[in-house]
Design goal:
Order of helices and strands: EEHHEEHEE
Helix content: 25-40%
Structural class: alpha+beta
Strand order of the largest sheet: 1-5-6-4-3-2
Distance between the termini: 42 Å
Number of strands: 6
Number of helices: 3
Shape: globular
Radius of gyration: 19 Å
């Protein structure tokens, strides 16, 4: 894969980098397991300063940041850089290490205690991806909204239409 390759989930047609960031925070983390918890707390703190007010979204951000930082510490190379960027109502959290691997969601066995991190990222984030920056390394990122949209109103009888019937094929 080339330097411009990106893996995304649900991000078709959307830019992975913000056009006009309004909040940017960066922290370098030594690649040791005991550094994951402080980096995770920092990410949540910075997200709050960037406008993340929803507690459920903050919990998701905390979990996903922890997964990516842990993966970078365990599988990457060198210092781990954590970057948080707010662009409008979206927060993008990026975790970069010096490795050249291509992280992908795994298929952990029933008794496995590892291998679910990117599955969680794919399931709980708005979008996510993997990039290989031109300066080298691997960057795994995800986005979450800064606010949670209110639940849609229940449909009324006027909103409900008859189901669309699709033609049947007879084999």
């Amino acid at each position: 894969m080339g330097d411009d390759d990106v893996r995304r989930s649900g991000a078709a047609g959307r830019r992975s980098l913000p056009l006009h960031p309004v909040h940017v925070s960066h922290r370098s983390v030594d690649p040791y397991p005991h550094q994951v918890a402080p980096a995770r707390r920092w990410a949540v703190e910075q997200a709050g300063e960037a406008g993340l007010t929803d507690q459920d979204a903050a919990a998701v951000l905390e979990l996903l940041a922890s997964e990516l930082i842990t993966n970078a510490v365990r599988h990457g190379e060198g210092t781990v850089d954590v970057t948080l960027v707010r662009d409008g109502a979206t927060l993008r959290i990026a975790v970069t290490d010096g490795g050249r691997g291509l992280p992908a969601p795994g298929a952990p066995g029933e008794g496995s205690v590892t291998g679910r991190g990117l599955l969680l990222v794919a399931a709980l984030s708005d979008t996510w991806g993997v990039e290989h920056p031109s300066g080298g390394g691997t960057c795994v990122w995800f986005t979450v909204p800064t606010t949670t949209a209110p639940a849609p109103a229940a449909p009324t009888a006027a909103d409900v239409r008859a189901p669309r019937t699709l033609p049947h094929r007879v084999a």
